[in-house]
Amino acid sequence: MELKLPDLRIVDTRRLVLHEESDPSRSERIAARLAEEKVLGNPPIVASVPGTSKLIVLDGANRVSAAFVLKLTALMVQVVDYADPEVRLHRWHHLLLELDGAALLESVRKIPLAIVEKTEAKTAERALSGKRVACVVRPRNGTAWRVLPRPGVSPAAVMRAVTDIYKRRTQIYRIADEQIDRLAEQTAANVTAVILFPGFRKQDIVRFALKEGITKHFIPNRALKVNLPLSVLRGKKTLAARNRELAALIARKSREKKIRAYPEPTVIFDE
To answer: Which residues contact 97 (CB under 8 A, 6 or more apart)?
Structure first.
């Protein structure tokens, strides 16, 4: 069977729109690594925004921001069809360690954009199903607090306000639904809280910006380790010239049989 290659292109960075905010510290680390290694391995994943020339960044906000740090005017991306049912949208929750839980909750309760209501800890995840819920804060003391936007405020704005409280003060561990209780129990001595976020629809992603590290897209046929020399993205070459260099790189890798697809789930031990 013929291998279907990902749709890789070099595009003007002005076309790229982030759907999640990037983490400045992570973006700077990535920029430093790119400058040192002089290659871009894993292209950000993007999709067209209907009715515009813009491309929404589904995965790789920090890599795109790193490109801005490096003042790159062009970037290699993988373009996907966002309407494809194989492109699936999931969510992350945040596990927070070694913060003052009482101070965290008090800061959340002082957010002027939000209404904070106590809810049942045992049904905290169910509380996310309510209309316009921004998140649920579940401290380790067994309580749970539902955070809603005030009238006229978007849930995304409240999410930003909540995560702004802790994003620079502690390491954020992104966890999936099925990991919540297990990981919270394993790290119980150091856990401050679990911040639970609601699910999203694809149209929500296009409509408003979310906070860094809340959504996760599962992309079929994801391109990894392309290792495009950064020199292709620098200078004043036209996009057509840059894309010819990318096509030549892919053709060479194909001739040398360096391109391989893994149809089964794969675990990488040195990413």
So the answer is: 170, 171, 173, 187, 190, 191, 192
